[in-house]
Write a structure and sequence with these properties.
- The protein is of the alpha+beta class.
- The chain is 28% helix and 31% strand.
- It has helices at residues 48-60, 66-69, 82-95, 118-129, 147-150, and strands at residues 8-21, 25-27, 30-32, 38-40, 98-108, 136-141, 154-165.
- The strands form two sheets. A five-stranded mixed sheet has the order 4-1-7-5-6. A two-stranded antiparallel ribbon has the order 2-3.
- The radius of gyration is 16 Å and the shape is globular.
- The protein binds zinc ion.
Length: 166
């Protein structure tokens, strides 16, 4: 095998959490109100957007996934603020001398309406990553009532990131 040191690496991340009564609905560090008072269930705050971005960042450098760094078996991460977990992953990427070029994410959820909150989510992610807001794409789509997202059993998120060698 010939050695190859790419200047760019792409990463892909996916996450899904169950919707449940009695839990907060926190996405991109923003607390949303669900019309049926549903929130996302999980060990941490279950922020699917932050989690999928973390997995995309780790995946780009073949560093495994978030379960490896923040195992649910570790009580330290119980109800953890996922923006803090994201900041730890960003630190890891920067320590390896990679620059986060841009991020693009899509949240899959029937409700609530995301549009009024997208800018706040971008602001939160932008601050944590140290990346200009227009280099962060956050979109939301319904699943046309199909599948677990469509039946409001859960909310999922897909993210891609592009890293560039410093
Ligand atoms: Zn997650």
């Amino acid at each position: 095998m010939t050695s190859h040191s790419p200047r760019f690496r792409i990463g892909n991340g996916y996450d899904i959490h169950r919707l449940k009564k009695g839990r907060d609905l926190i996405i991109g560090g923003v607390k949303l109100e669900h019309p049926n008072n549903l929130g996302l269930d999980g060990h941490s705050d279950a922020d699917v957007l932050s989690h999928s971005i973390m997995d995309a960042l780790l995946g780009a450098l073949s560093l495994g996934d978030i379960g490896k760094y923040f195992p649910p078996s570790d009580n330290k991460w119980k109800n953890a603020d996922s923006l803090i977990l994201l900041s730890k992953v960003v630190e890891l990427i920067k320590n390896k001398r990679w620059i986060i070029n841009n991020i693009d994410s899509v949240i899959v959820a029937e409700r609530p309406k995301f549009l009024p909150h997208i800018d706040s989510m971008k602001d939160n992610i932008s601050k944590v990553i140290g990346l200009e807001r227009d280099l962060i794409g956050i979109k939301a789509t319904t699943n046309e009532t199909l599948g677990p997202e469509g039946r409001e059993e859960g909310i999922s998120c897909h993210s891609v990131v592009l890293l560039e060698k410093e």
